[in-house]
């Protein structure tokens, strides 16, 4: 297949591009390099040293003989350029990662909220709009989030996108329907993914666009077999308070002797998936497209759920790291249960990589190797969800004034 990977320079996009190229597909990365600009804005860098996208693709070609093409296009900002590219290349499938993906970044200020909404919603809408206008019948696979559901369940597993409901009509009968699971975003970032769902629903219904939406959990790990093939193919790896995600942050913190930054009681339960499984899931989704006229296909792209404080204890047992219970910068439930249905990927052959598979140590090793690149002052999460929460946030870079350390 000719596959366009929008956002192919990012944390999940880059390993996906390599995985699909390795599998023999003709891969084209489209990216505006915004993630690199945000590093510059925040004054942080990936823990792992990352080459330019051109250098990365050159090394991939030298290693494998396969070409990955790179095109510098801003989906949200340059509609005409995007449309011209799609018209000229007419890909069979489009994988859409090209969105601002960090909840804390989206909540930093009014400017960051505006940026996230404008960028993410315009990127998706420009793409859908151009596909219809060009009569491009490509399968669109979008990276969504588990966060569209919210994280509290009513004692039932979260289904894959749709909820069966019985509606009592005026004549007293009960009509059965399946509706999109009620959206319950916890940040501006997550909200944009909820808005995406409505855009997809409309374009699938109105124009027959074939769409798969992947509701992904929190990614952990860094290497895939392809990124490990050469030091210059290494994936980016975020540790800072805005872009680092919880388990990877704990593993990096353990490697640099920084007390593990548990927010609140650590009672938040979330869904997780290893980066190796993310790229496999995208491939499985690409191989199982919906038919024209079908409703949006939705998969829950996660393999296990864990409570944040259990993860901290696990990492602490493994590495001897201390645990710090910090004021929570977010507005979220202090404790929640989470049960998620992921039967569809399992039925299609996904063999999950679990925490117990020994890959936690691999991440700690990577973190130790590049520990010299860490700016400890960028570890605390400082983006507060509301003005009331802001004064509670501890900005002490070395963690010496942490609320409690065990
Ligand atoms: N947390 C800590 N300590 C930290 C960092 C986070 O206790 O140092 C807590 C947070 O308060 C939250 C949980 O861990 O309760 C998860 O936070 P996170 O930063 O790992 O994940 P989140 O903000 O939800 O976002 C990440 C990705 C996003 C993706 C989402 C999937 O950045 O792109 O969509 O995970 S999900 O969480 O399932 O919605």
Automatic annotation (TrEMBL):
<protein>
    <submittedName>
        <fullName>NAD-dependent epimerase/dehydratase family protein</fullName>
    </submittedName>
</protein>
<dbReference type="InterPro" id="IPR001509">
    <property type="entry name" value="Epimerase_deHydtase"/>
</dbReference>
<comment type="pathway">
    <text>Bacterial outer membrane biogenesis; LPS O-antigen biosynthesis.</text>
</comment>
<feature type="domain" description="NAD-dependent epimerase/dehydratase">
    <location>
        <begin position="3"/>
        <end position="291"/>
    </location>
</feature>
<dbReference type="Pfam" id="PF01370">
    <property type="entry name" value="Epimerase"/>
</dbReference>
<comment type="similarity">
    <text>Belongs to the NAD(P)-dependent epimerase/dehydratase family.</text>
</comment>
């Amino acid at each position: 297949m000719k596959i366009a990977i929008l956002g192919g320079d990012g944390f999940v996009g880059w390993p996906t591009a390599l995985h699909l190229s390795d599998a023999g597909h003709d891969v084209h990365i489209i990216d505006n390099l915004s993630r690199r600009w945000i590093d510059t804005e925040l004054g942080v860098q990936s823990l792992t040293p990352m080459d330019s996208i051109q250098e990365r693709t050159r090394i991939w070609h030298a290693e494998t003989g396969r070409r990955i093409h790179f095109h510098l296009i801003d989906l949200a900002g340059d509609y005409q350029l995007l449309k011209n590219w799609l018209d000229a290349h007419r890909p069979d499938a489009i994988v859409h990662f090209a969105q601002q993906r960090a909840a804390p970044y989206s909540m930093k200020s009014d400017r960051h909220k505006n940026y996230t909404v404008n960028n993410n919603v315009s990127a998706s809408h420009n793409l859908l709009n151009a596909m219809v206008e060009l009569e491009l019948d490509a399968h669109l696979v979008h990276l969504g989030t588990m966060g569209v559901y919210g994280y509290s369940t009513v004692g039932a597993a979260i289904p894959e996108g749709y909820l069966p409901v019985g509606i009592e009509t005026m004549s007293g009968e009960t009509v059965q329907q399946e509706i999109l699971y009620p959206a319950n975003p916890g940040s501006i970032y997550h909200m944009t993914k909820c808005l995406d769902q409505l855009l997809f629903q409309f374009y699938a219904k109105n124009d027959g666009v074939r769409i798969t939406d992947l509701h992904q959990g929190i990614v952990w790990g860094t290497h895939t077999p392809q990124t490990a093939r050469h030091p210059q193919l290494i994936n980016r790896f975020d540790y800072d308070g805005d872009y680092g995600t919880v388990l990877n942050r704990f593993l990096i913190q353990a490697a640099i002797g920084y007390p593990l930054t548990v927010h609140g009681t650590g009672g938040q339960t979330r869904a997780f998936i290893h980066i190796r499984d993310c790229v496999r899931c995208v491939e499985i989704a690409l191989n199982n497209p919906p038919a024209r006229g079908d409703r949006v296909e939705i998969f829950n792209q996660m393999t296990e759920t864990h409570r944040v404080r259990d993860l901290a204890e696990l990492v602490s047992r493994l590495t001897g790291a201390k645990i710090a219970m910090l004021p929570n910068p977010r507005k979220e439930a202090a404790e929640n249960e989470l049960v998620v249905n992921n039967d569809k990927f399992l039925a299609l052959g996904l063999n999950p990589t679990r925490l117990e598979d020994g890959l936690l140590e691999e991440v700690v090793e990577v973190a130790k190797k590049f520990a010299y690149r860490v700016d400890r002052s960028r570890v605390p999460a400082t983006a507060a969800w509301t003005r009331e929460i802001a004064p509670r946030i501890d900005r002490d870079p070395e963690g010496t004034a942490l609320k409690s350390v065990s």
